[in-house]
Specification:
Helices cover about 65% and strands about 5% of the residues. By secondary structure, the chain is mostly helical. The protein has one domain. The relative contact order is 0.15. Keywords: Cell membrane, Hydrolase, Membrane, Metal-binding, Metalloprotease, Protease, Transmembrane, Transmembrane helix, Zinc. It is found in: Cell membrane. One of its GO terms (biological process) is proteolysis.
């Protein structure tokens, strides 16, 4: 388990370094040392804005509602215990999303962190499985993954912007190129053209690495990798049913692993089973040693509306 965590850490550092290095190289090709400085400066502003503004905006887009302790005592008890084990100064707030799609995500950092769960998730998973999923999300917060992925997203966007500006300059100078008064450096040109794609692929790889790390960290918090593995299997089964209904007959929807934000579920489950063999859990260490059925708040009616793609681009 320690070897896997070390490998995830090294891989994350290499990927982040590669993305920043690519951005600075592009800035240098565009305007020398000043281009590198501007690339960093332009990246800082959207990073700060995204960390402060986006969490509340995204929750609003999902129509999420904060759940009080009185409304969901079991959920709060689980999240509070996980937060203590993760060493968080404060437990994340819990938000409820009125959607039948089984979704869960963590957002924000520090005192502004939140975990959002849908009605569909609370009714699909058992308590044990829900503990595993919440442990995964609390680990994302404890590992500062929100900050890391926001940083990676900003780097990719700034890389795309500089690449676009460089391409515009080349187009504007086409007359000089045709007249032979300006030579086109092909290697920098190729880098400028493909830099956004390379940066995006590095970002996706970083996302998959952080997901693996959250699986490991979450399993350590709950002392129950099997709970998370069972939840992942259920969520994958649901996703495949949805894809089968939405897909044209005879069309196979195979997503290349390079283009995934999350690792393949089978690989995640395999790693969790490997962790389980290495762990010797004490029943008293389990956040929720007893298993039970779904734990949706009893006062909230079940959402029956079929999930759909909204104008915001979100599916819920």
């Amino acid at each position: 388990m320690l070897a896997q965590r070390l490998r995830n850490l090294i891989q994350s550092m290499v990927l982040v370094t590669g993305m920043v290095g690519l951005l600075l190289t592009l800035g240098w090709l565009f305007a020398g040392i000043y281009g590198m400085a501007w690339a960093l400066l332009v990246g800082i502003i959207p990073l700060v804005v995204s960390l402060r503004v986006l969490p509340a905006l995204i929750l609003r887009m999902y129509k999420a509602k904060a759940l009080s302790v009185a409304e969901a005592p079991q959920l709060h008890a689980i999240v509070n215990q996980l937060a203590r084990r993760a060493g968080l100064a404060e437990p994340p707030r819990i938000h409820y999303i009125p959607s039948s799609a089984p979704l869960v995500f963590s957002i924000g950092s520090g005192k502004g962190a939140s975990v959002a769960v849908t009605d569909g998730l609370l009714r699909l998973l058992t308590v044990r499985e829900l503990v595993g999923v919440l442990g995964h999300e609390v680990s994302h917060i404890g590992n500062s993954d929100t900050w890391v992925m926001s940083f990676a997203d900003v780097v990719t966007r700034v890389t795309r912007l500089i690449s676009l500006l460089g391409q515009v300059l080349i187009i504007l100078n086409l007359p000089l190129l045709i007249l032979g008064e300006w030579s086109l450096p092909w290697i920098p040109l190729m880098l400028m053209l493909f830099a956004p794609t390379i940066s995006a692929l590095l970002q996706l790889s970083l996302s998959r690495t952080r997901e693996f790390e959250a699986d490991l960290s979450g399993s350590k918090l709950t002392s129950d990798p099997a709970g998370l593995a069972s939840a992942l299997a259920k969520l994958e089964e649901y996703q495949q049913r949805v894809l089968k209904k939405s897909r044209l007959p005879g069309v196979k929807g195979i997503e290349p692993s390079l283009l995934r934000t999350h690792p393949v579920t089978d690989e995640r489950i395999k790693r969790l089973k490997d962790i389980e063999r290495e762990m010797y859990p004490d029943e008293s260490m389990l956040v929720c040693p007893e298993d039970g059925g779904p734990c949706a708040p009893p006062h909230i009616a079940e959402v029956s509306r079929v999930p759909r793609r909204h104008l915001s681009g979100l599916w819920h």
